Amino acid sequence: MSTHIGAAPGDIAPTVLMPGDPLRAKWIAETFLDDARCYSEVRGMYGFTGTWQGRPVSVQGSGMGQPSLAIYANELFRDYDVQTAIRVGSCGALTEKLAIRDLVIASGACTDSSMNHIAFEGLDYAPVADFGLLRDAAAAAPEAHVGLIFSSDSFYAARPELVARMVDYGVLAVEMEASALYTLAAKHGRRALAICTVSDHIVTGEETTSQEREQTFGRMVEVALTASQPG
Ligand SMILES: O=P(O)(O)O[C@H]1O[C@H](CO)[C@@H](O)[C@H]1O
Ligand SMILES: O=c1cc[nH]c(=O)[nH]1
């Protein structure tokens, strides 16, 4: 067992999907995987392993925010030798180019987090997706928007006008974890990607329910599973 994941070595597949919501992890395992088995219930942050098209795949909840995601990503990479981690999250649309339920595939993630400023002593590191995963996800989802997202430390922004300024520089949507996932995958020499479904629209005010965020964002899961296939 690692500190926060109650799995034995070998219980977790080389490919892991990472939703923020542990109940979305349960829904993904029950809906998309064959023979899914729960390997961890520590803190209610469920993890499951099953197979998809005969290949082992795990699903591990990450919790909300980069500090929580970083705990699980560090342990998956360091203690369970995970090679590929794909976030399957929800996001808020920042521009009218996006509609509710659209897919956003994050080529890179801006952030207001201090994690990288501390790690790089004030230099700005650029967290980006693995190119092969990005290419394969974009090919699997021609309808998706591919571009920059903003990984915020705050769901309730103290200064929303600064988020709006990012839109002028091409940022499409806001979520809370991708930047840390991309950074940690690079640190460990592993592959990472974030695919998000627009759950609410910051411009129009439209939103989905918590039940919909948990159990209806299946298209991003299909795209993640397709992109994660070797070769
Ligand atoms: O739906 P998940 O994957 O949790 O992602 C988004 O939803 C949460 C906020 O409601 C944050 O974790 C954000 O990144
Ligand atoms: O972080 C998030 C996730 C979904 N919607 C938002 O507005 N922010």
Automatic annotation (TrEMBL):
CDD domains: PNP_EcPNPI-like. It catalyses: uridine + phosphate = alpha-D-ribose 1-phosphate + uracil. One of its GO terms (molecular function) is uridine phosphorylase activity. It comes from Nocardioides euryhalodurans. PANTHER family: FI09636P-RELATED, URIDINE PHOSPHORYLASE. It holds the Pfam family PNP_UDP_1. HAMAP family: Pur_nucleosid_phosp (MF_01627). Transmembrane segments: none annotated. Its EC number is 2.4.2.3. One of its GO terms (biological process) is purine nucleoside catabolic process. InterPro entries: DeoD-type, Nucleoside_phosphorylase_CS, Nucleoside_phosphorylase_d, Nucleoside_phosphorylase_sf. Keywords: Glycosyltransferase, Transferase. Belongs to the PNP/UDP phosphorylase family. Residues 16-222 form the Nucleoside phosphorylase domain. This is Uridine phosphorylase.
